[in-house]
Amino acid sequence: MSMHSSRPEVRSTHDVIVIGGGPMGLSTAWQLSKRNAKTLLLEQFTFFNQLGSSAGVSRQFRLPYPEEYMVKLVKQSIPFWHELQSLTPVPLMDKVGTLWFGDPAVHSTEGNIAEAEKALKALDVPYTSLTAAEIERQYHFRDLPSSYTGIFQADGASIDLLATQRTLYNWNAASPFVTILEEAPATRITQSEGTFEVVTPKGSFFGKKLVLVPGPYANNVFNLLDFSIAATYWNMASAFYKKTRPDIQYPTWFVFQEPDGTNGNEFYGFPEVSWNYPGYIRVASDFVMQPLDSPEQRTSVPNPQELAYTAQWVRDHMTGLEPVPQFTSTCMVALSKIANKELLIDFAPPHVPNHKDIVIYATGWAAKFVPLLGRILADLALDGHTPFDISPFATGTTYFQPLQAGRQKTNASTK
Ligand code: BEZ
After folding, report:
1. 289 CB-near residues (< 8 Å, 6+ apart)
2. How far is CA 216 from CA 60, 219, 362, 398, in A?
3. Ligand 1 neighbours (beta carbon < 6 A)
4. Which of these ranges, 43-57, 210-224, 272-286, has the smallest mean pLDDT?
5. Which pLDDT band holds residue 411 (cuts at 50, 70, 90)?
6. How far apart are CA 45 and CA 27, in angstroms?
7. Burial class (CB in 10 A: 0-12, 13-18, 19+), 106
């Protein structure tokens, strides 16, 4: 596939400019193009980079959530995944099921097992309840406390996020409605007579609407429009462990446990997948010992203590693996202060002129929603509303903050 970008049409006006060329931006451009909207997709680095929250190539698709509205949203995403899958012969998911297990009393960032069971039941999603002994026997874990319980939900999968992005990229590159441009960070955004001008090192571009999907680089873009999001940044560590028993396969899984001192003690993992270090499985920690104040503080070196805690857990509780972390990786996510670290889908705050012409997705883990979120963001940009219930995510009034007067005007302004 050619990595070069289509030539931008400088000074013509786009219906929508999408800022951020990760999975969400690519998906939004896909959905916009299906409505014949003239779209410009800007990526600050290169496409398929490993610098955002989508880094690490595989992601979990799962239905268990403690909130019914999240389970419903995952269900609603399924036909959109099928549509995206129809565009490529490459499987976008490996359906191995989701195993949620651990201490039933724990309420973590991902929720609580009993609450998830309740939400799955309410939405008629089939699942199996498991005891600690059943989890060990059926899913290859060992030496679990006997009080642990679990659920297995068969529709869970490991998402091939790189193939997902390539499918979306190829569609957009072939679409007469989409112009894609990489190494084009927005450095200034102004407005005049209902048109936005987005300045980049590759030129200035005009658009009637904006969709902002900059992942963890949210504030680099939001600051250009005189607001910021209250967020913390997690540079999450993961590592691949060599399988010593090629015959066993893990599901995608997540273990809920009480923190133990500095050890956040929650871990998650993936099956062996054909597209990423075959012969190995990936295990990650779902806690970060040193959150960052901004993405610029990040290094690509995973926190060694987080890796060590994870390796210890692998050694103590998993079978068929060499318990030595290899091929480490990190992914960085911006998380709002929302307790359950959810998604924020909203318009820009009201002090920004024409704020309803600026659609935003920020924070949280949303790979499982990629094709659906593109549709929702395209609806919001073109229609100002969407038939999908996004009311739980319209939390900008709480988490967006105006920039302090005088701080922002070095290279950004709104007229
Ligand atoms: C998720 O499925 O959203 C998720 C899984 C593991 C860690 C964080 C998020």
Report:
1. 262, 264, 303, 305, 306
2. 19, 8, 8, 18
3. 60, 62, 110, 254, 268, 286, 365
4. 43-57
5. very low
6. 17
7. middle
pTM: 0.94
Residue 69 Cα to ligand 1 middle (Å): 16
Of the candidate ranges 15-24, 38-47, 91-100, 293-302, the one whose mean pLDDT is the lowest = 293-302
**193 conformational bin, left if phi > 0, alpha if psi -120 to 50, beta if neither:** left
CATH numbers and ranges of domains, the chain: 8-53+162-229+341-401 (3.50.50.60), 83-159+232-336 (3.30.9.10)
Say whether 377 sits in a helix, a strand or coil: helix
C-alpha count within 13 angstroms, C-beta hemisphere, residue 353? 13
pLDDT at 367 over 90: yes
Calculate the dihedral angle through the C-alpha atoms of 237, 335, 85, 79, rounding to the nearest 10 degrees: 140
Confidence grade of residue 413 (pLDDT, cut at 50, 70, 90): very low
What are the tokens at 81? Answer: 């995944």
Minimal CA–CA distance to 213: which of 190, 229, 226? 229
Q: What is the mean pLDDT of residues 389-406?
A: 86
- For β-strands 188-192 and 195-200, DSSP reports them as antiparallel
Q: What are the catalytic residues?
A: 62, 110, 268, 286, 331, 365, 368
